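Chapter summary example.
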Amino acid sequence: MKRFVNAREAIVTEAIDGLLASSHGDIARLDGYPHIKVVVRNDWDKRKVAVISGGGAGHEPAHAGFVGPGVLTGAVCGEIFASPSVDAVLACILAVTGEPGCLLVVKNYTGDRLNFGLAAEKAKRLGIAVELVVVADDVALPGAARPRGIAGTLFVHKVAGHLAESGHPLSTVKRAAEDAAASIRSLGVSFSTCTVPGQQPESRLGPRDAELGMGIHGEPGAAVIEAGTAHEIVGLMVDRLCRDERPAHCNYGMLVNNLGAVPPIEMGVIVNEVLGSVLGPRIELLFGPAPLMTSLDMNGFSLSLIELNAERREALLAPVGPRAWVPGVRMRAPRVLPLPRSAHAIAFQGSDDPVAAAVLRGVCRVLMDSEAELNRLDAKVGDGDTGSTFATAARSVLASLDAAQLPLAEPDRLCLAIGERLGTTMGGSSGVLLSILFTAAGAEMARTRRWAAALEAGVHAVRRYGGAAAGDRTMLDALLPAVAALERDGIVAAAEAAEHGAEATAAMTKAQAGRSSYVDATHLQGVRDPGAAAVAHGFRAAAKALERARVEESA
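The structure predicted for these 555 residues follows.
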């Protein structure tokens, strides 16, 4: 597994120094590398209660990323997934604690409890007031004697940090932290384990497996489940989180935590599913989605619920200094505004033509059926979405056809209608170029009433606006010969010419347009241009549909 690291033993110290270098200068570290890795506020007023947390590295931005006004006073960092030493915890306590004392917030792992606990006892012998709160928010194993502490711990940091910053005594800060910890329930799910630098990645999950209740150190989860849809997975998690609900009717804050490798677009889908779940109406505050307590590169997420009351609501909404903290927002349904209408929008009246309908239906179906094939081609030379782009356009046109919204009996207006539909729904450069093609073809069709002349005018407009030409390894390499053959010999010849043109692009080792123009020749050799392949599929489908229509007419 490739990593952007220098030496495994230096990852944590170098990452901490990178954090300090990119901060606003309000945090610093103790001079104890490599054994003492402690990040503290350098502006801390020791007349207030200090709040300290920490644990193994690999969960960034937790814990050091939350050191700052309104959250943590200090963070004690261990090696990756390893508890920090007693000496490191004690050093942090001594560095930031004054007469009001300090609160240690510890996740419920044996190493953290023991090391932080022993450090607390040593500090007490020195006359320092120290209290410890253990967070055990993981509900993956009902009835577990020692539930793990996971991302819900961040809510405890925030509540305790706010009260400490506000000048409350240690007894108040501890009580609020304990009450908050008791009101939190968390659950995670992942499609993969995490990969610890320097170790071979595990592969205990199959390609269709997900792990529910996975720990933040890559330890096995409570159950292996089928990797279903986001709707199914979020629904299962919500059901588990609500199982032992207390009290029966309260509002919640929810933290949606990326465990490391879930793309932002998928995190957005997850939030949308949470909003639509049975919990949605009762989620008052949303925190995230964001990577807050990660597990290196784990491809998973966790949901943490906290029961809200006036004190917690105030604490969770209070502004903070650390940039890693994501402010809570009032969760609400998406706001939808009316779609602006162009003053010059063309209104199309549906009309019937069985042959035109058969051709359109055939082309749309073949483009939808070719989605995976075209995506595979594009993945080798572009961004892997050509098939999806054409399939989306085909579904849109087919929907208009099924709804009798296309002027099939008027070829010029049919071209204009398809051009508008593609420009609205297809997206990307291909959508714009094909919209140009059909719009220009519609104008020519109104004048000449000939498909060959209309498509030739459309291709000319694509060349003029798109800037590509024959041999540039684009869909024009299939379009140009197809249109020329259509004029001379008809649709069957046009389909054959389009196929030959698309096949010729596999021998072209330099693209002059599109994303393929950034790809090295070795990746282009032997691979057909996906746009040209899509055009070839379309002409072949049109030829088959017309041939079938002629046979039916003669019968």
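To summarize the output: The chain has 18 helices and 13 strands.
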